[in-house]
Structure formats: structure tokens, C-alpha cells
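Summary: Need help interpreting a holo structure output

Steps to reproduce:
1. Submit the protein chain below together with the SMILES for magnesium ion.
2. Request a joint structure prediction with the ligand placed.
3. Inspect the C-alpha cell block that comes back.

Expected: a single structure record containing both the chain and the bound molecule.
Actual: see attached output.

Input attached:
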Amino acid sequence: MTMAIAADGLIRSFGTVRAVDGVSFEVGEGEVFGLLGPNGAGKTTLIRLLAGVLTPDAGSARVLGLDPTIDGSAVRSRCGVLTETPAVYERLTARQNLSFAADVFGVPVPDVGARVGDLLARFSLQDRADEPVAGFSKGMKQRLALARALIHDPELLFLDEPTAGLDPVASRQVHDLVGTLRDEGRTVVLCTHHLVEAEALCDRVGVLAKGKLIALGTVRELSDRLLAASPVVLSFLGPVADAVAAAVGAVPGVAVTEREERRLLLAAADDGAAADAIGAAVRAGGRVVSAGRREHTLEEVYFALQEVPA
Ligand SMILES: Nc1ncnc2c1ncn2[C@@H]1O[C@H](COP(=O)(O)OP(=O)(O)O)[C@@H](O)[C@H]1O
Ligand SMILES: [Mg+2]
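--- attached output ---
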């Protein structure tokens, strides 16, 4: 896979705080990569290093094959950045905001009208395109900021907490838009402390804590690697009889970890043990209506990682 980003040992301090502390990772072209971590973990600083806005104290990066400390303006001309608290010009209309950005990014003049019109339509802003932005909702402003980040048709997008402070409907719209960016083959780096968001949108995630990348992989890989096997949930038509619970618990490689009125949660050593447990439940007279592994959410992975000693 061609790499859109390769970071190698990036370090950046502010005073005594090491905001980014030796971070190395790669993002493939066309990947949606999530940077996860709580406030202060170093996500924004890392993005600023990659976008060539900040210089690292040590380490290096290649972004689209370029070194952002040397070719910062070339990097920025091929990257879109949605900053953490994007400022749109309140007194300008949505169309004027985008036209201004087109000018800044050197979009060829004959293309500007059509490009701006397309983005307004795509981000569902066309009906209000010629109103001052001051009257827009937060969600509309965020959509406008995202449209602006796309004005020069960038290959790579850095989205820093794109749904922070949005209501669920507006968040959903932003999610859908990120999905379309992926479908277009753009590479996306998405910073978030919203774990469900990363889980829904990202191909891979890196977890940052206190400036260090403490985990890297797919949600599935992280969960497999770092937590015990996911619990198997057996759901029954009626209350779970003692005999059923006992029969399930007697299966080799299976332990009943939780018993609810109509559900058993099991720790199963492997899928074979899980299958045996289902068979045992049925033979003991249990009417199983569903059985499956409950995957760990990224949230569970995240909190489990916080407990891993550094
Ligand atoms: N410009 C700056 N000046 C001083 N400290 C900063 C600056 N930017 C970030 N920091 C500090 O670096 C650490 C990481 O911050 P940041 O990268 O914003 O994290 P995140 O985006 O994950 O919330 C924090 O301790 C923050 O206070
Ligand atoms: Mg941040």
C-alpha cells in the first residue's frame, strides 16, 4: 500500500509538557485513520506537526511523500484541515466564505463558481447559501467549515474533532459526509475522543495518551490483542432454568460470567467452546433465541488501555 503519512519518532514539547512524545505510525492512501485519546493527549499537536503548521523538536514525517518541515506549503495545498474550533466569517455568506477560501487556495478562477456551488449542494447549504453565516446553526457552520476544507479538492484530510459540540442529528450528517470522503478514495485522519464515532468511521485507529501512541490497529485487532475474548451472549425465550445454566457452565472451556433473567454471558475459550455451550443449553431444554459474541466497543478497549502500565 502506498503511504499517505509516515511519522517517525515525532516529538514536540511546549515548555515542560511533551505534547507529542515519540510517535511513529503510518497511514495508507485511502485509509480513514482515527486518532483517539482524551483531551490533552496530543491529537491536535500531532495533526499540526503533520500539516506543517508546527515543527517537531525531533523525529520526522512524510506526508504525501513530502517533508512538512521543508515543503509545508506544498503539503497544505494537497491537504484539507478542519481545525478543532473552525472559524467561519460570520458576516460573509456561506458562498462568500467558500469563494474566499477558493481564492486563498488558488482554485482557478473559472472553476470557483461551480466548485462552490457543488460543495454548497453537497453539504446541504444551497438554500441558505446567500445568507450571512452569523444566522447559521452550529451544525451548519460545521458543515460549511468541512466544505471549506475540501475547496481545493485535497487528497488528504485532517479532521480535528469534527462533531464536537454538535447535536446527534448534526453529528450524523458529519458522519455521513466522512463516509462519502472515504468512498471518494481520500485519506482521512480523524481525531476524536468519541469512541463510537471512531469505531463507526475508521479503518484503523491509534490511541494516544499523554503524547504516546499506546495502541495501533483495527478496532478488532485492538480488542483481540488487549482484552480477553469477547463475551458470548446467549439469549433465551423465557427465564434461564438452573439446569440450563449448570449444563452450560459444565462445558469445558466455558464459564458463565453473568446470569440475567433471560440471558447468560459466557467466557468461552474459543468458538468451538461457544458452539458446545449453545448445544448444551439446547439439550438441557433451554430455548435459545440468539447467540453471538458481543464485540468490545472501542470505549471498552480505550479504558482497558488506560489500565495497561506504560
Ligand atoms: N500552543 C500550545 N502551547 C502550550 N501548550 C500546548 C499548546 N498546544 C498544546 N499544548 C499542550 O500540549 C498537550 C497536548 O495538547 P493537544 O495536542 O491540544 O491535545 P488534544 O488535541 O489531544 O486535546 C496539552 O497538555 C496542551 O495543554
Ligand atoms: Mg485537540
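--- end attachment ---

Reviewer comment: The CA atoms of residues 80 and 149 lie 5 Å apart. The two ends are 31 Å apart (CA to CA).
Status: needs-info
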